[in-house]
């Protein structure tokens, strides 16, 4: 599992219906959950960004599930149905380590990406269920971020992904995550400009939740499709997103350079950084990441000191890594 990228139509009436519900929930300070209205004492993601110098996100999903015994070849999303106790347990471990927010186990949960696997046709149920599971696991004091990963298909003309297909699948995922009660949505580990723009268009057509856009610069300081950090900022900063950033990627030394370029380009737009715990190596039959918690924490604390506003980890980062970041941030 060198990179989490490889793990594996709605009409206007729906938009109106959803936005009406969301606006009502935010305005009144309550959110419907499972048909029961629950008082939300937790500030929103944007309020927290204003109140605190830095927020601590969680770490990896897939590589921690490997440590917890997920069978080879099983997609992390399958655990939402087959092993929800383990999914909830990892969310709780990150909260105990200091995370202010956790990401749902829905990185690969667009219907388009699920189409050829065992969860084909279950996208709506999966995204709603994963969001509700995360919320139940972390309680009301921690934010739940809905993870939206790429479809796994290249954009036209290099591949079969068209704007219409992309917007339909991302809109469905965003709506399902919102219905499940997430506090924000995170488009993460993207590499192509087209697919990212289509995902933002889809999410914003369906939800007014805070939206973060995070790319994976895993070719040195560029994405697989050659995008540079500053180009990502230039493309997404004007679109009303609440943060831009980088996740996954390759080495922490590369992330050092990526963070500098993002910060130089982002002006006042908050920066989100969730890198891998260093470079993966194959040792025996397992993948080992070379950054121990102290090393990971030293890099992440330096990003926060430079101005990054949300820090955490991606592949290879365990609850111990997040606890080390929390300590390095003196939390
Ligand atoms: Zn990753």
The best one-word shape is globular
* Unreliable runs: 5-39
Fraction of residues in helix: 40-55%
What is the distance, rounded to the nearest whole angstrom, between the alpha carbons of the first and last residues?
A: 31 Å
Largest sheet: number of strands, sense, barrel closure: 8 strands, parallel
Overall number of strands: 12
Structural class: alpha/beta
Mean pLDDT: 89
Strand order of the largest sheet: 3-12-9-8-7-6-5-4
SSE order, one letter for each helix or strand = HEEHEHHHEHHEHEHEHEHEEEHEH
Tell me the CATH architecture. Answer: Alpha-Beta Barrel
Count of folded domains: 1
Q: CATH superfamily, please? A: Homocysteine-binding-like domain
Tally of separate helices: 13
Reported by name, the CATH topology is: TIM Barrel
Instruction: Supply the CATH class.
Output: Alpha Beta
| Whole-angstrom Rg | 18 Å
Associated small molecules: zinc ion
DSSP strand content: 15-25%
Break the fold down into its secondary structure elements and pairings.
Layout: H1 12-28, E1 30-33, E2 36-39, H2 45-51, E3 55-56, H3 62-67, H4 78-82, H5 84-97, E4 101-103, H6 111-114, H7 123-138, E5 143-148, H8 163-179, E6 184-190, H9 193-206, E7 211-215, H10 229-236, E8 243-248, H11 252-266, E9 271-275, E10 280-283, E11 286-289, H12 293-306, E12 310-311, H13 319-328
Parallel strand pairs: 3-12, 4-5, 5-6, 6-7, 7-8, 8-9, 9-12
Antiparallel strand pairs: 1-2, 10-11
Helix pairs in contact: 5-7, 5-13, 7-8, 8-9, 10-11, 11-12, 12-13
The protein binds zinc ion.
Residues 4, 248, 276, 314-315 line the site of zinc ion.
């Amino acid at each position: 599992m060198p990179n989490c990228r490889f793990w594996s139509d709605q009409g206007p009436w729906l938009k109106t219906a959803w936005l009406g519900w969301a606006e009502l929930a935010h305005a009144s300070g309550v959110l419907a959950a499972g048909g029961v209205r629950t008082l939300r004492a937790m500030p929103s993601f944007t309020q927290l960004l204003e109140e605190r110098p830095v927020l601590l996100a969680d770490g990896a999903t897939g590589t921690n599930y490997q440590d917890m015994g997920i069978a080879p070849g099983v997609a992390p999303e399958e655990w939402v149905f087959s092993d929800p106790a383990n999914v909830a347990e990892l969310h709780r471990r990150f909260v105990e380590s200091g995370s202010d927010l956790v990401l749902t186990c829905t990185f690969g949960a667009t219907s388009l990406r699920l189409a050829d696997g065992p969860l084909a046709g279950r996208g709506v149920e999966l995204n709603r269920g994963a969001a509700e599971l995360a919320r139940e696991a972390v309680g009301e004091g921690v934010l739940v971020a809905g993870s939206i990963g790429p479809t796994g298909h290249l954009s036209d003309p290099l591949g079969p992904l068209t704007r219409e297909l992309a917007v339909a699948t991302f809109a469905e995922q965003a709506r399902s995550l919102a219905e499940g009660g997430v506090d924000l949505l995170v488009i993460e580990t993207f590499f192509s400009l087209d697919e990212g723009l289509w995902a933002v268009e889809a999410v914003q057509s369906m939800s007014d939740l805070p939206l973060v856009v995070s790319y994976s610069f895993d070719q040195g300081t560029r994405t697989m499709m050659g995008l540079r950090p500053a180009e990502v900022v230039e493309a997404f900063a004007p679109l009303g997103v609440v943060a831009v950033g980088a996740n996954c990627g390759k080495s922490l030394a590369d992330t050092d350079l990526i963070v500098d370029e993002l910060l130089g380009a982002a002006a006042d737009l908050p920066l989100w950084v969730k890198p891998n715990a260093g470079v993966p190596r194959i040792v025996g039959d397992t993948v080992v990441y070379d950054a121990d918690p102290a090393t990971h924490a030293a890099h992440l604390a330096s990003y926060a000191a430079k101005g990054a506003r949300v820090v955490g980890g991606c592949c290879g980062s365990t609850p111990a890594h997040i606890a080390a970041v929390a300590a390095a941030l003196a939390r």
